[in-house]
Design a protein that fits this description.
single chain, about 140 residues, alpha+beta, 6-stranded antiparallel β-sheet, 5 helices, about 30% strand
Length: about 140
């Protein structure tokens, strides 16, 4: 596998949602243990309470996450990422957004431009090679 340095996840959780249920679903679907998350509380645009869950996965945990993500995304969505990869890469990092509700309700993974799970996959890459490296990573599974 490509030299994944880390994967960072940010999840927006509204006050009416069950934090434990969301983190358990992420663990079952993408193998991110709930203990990896730091939870903080903030206020939304209308001063409603919002929880932010953040986790950084390194080396083996990051690789396990990537394998699960690629497997669950399916060929069509991986092809969509590859097709739009130049718009998803910045500074040796690939940025994706996932639909949290899809993970919680069906155990599936779906890309969503306004998704409430933000994923940043970082690997050290020399300039100009990022698109090739991330395309190769997505094609491995």
């Amino acid at each position: 596998m490509a030299n994944i340095q880390n994967v960072h996840l940010d999840i927006i959780i509204h006050a009416t949602e069950d934090v434990d249920k969301i983190l358990k679903s992420l663990h079952q679907t993408l193998y991110v243990h709930p203990d990896n998350f730091d939870i903080s509380q903030t206020r939304g645009h209308y001063h409603n309470p919002i929880m932010m869950a953040a986790a950084t996965l390194r080396k083996k945990d990051a690789a396990r996450f990537i394998r699960a993500l690629c497997k669950r995304l399916g060929r069509y969505q991986r092809d969509e990422i590859i097709r739009t990869i130049s718009t998803r890469i910045s500074s040796s990092s690939l940025y994706l957004r996932l639909d949290r509700q899809e993970i919680v309700h069906s155990g599936g993974v779906m890309l969503q431009d306004s998704g409430t799970i933000r994923v940043k996959i970082h690997m050290p890459i020399h300039a100009g090679r990022a698109e090739d490296a991330f395309t190769e990573m997505l094609s491995l599974y």
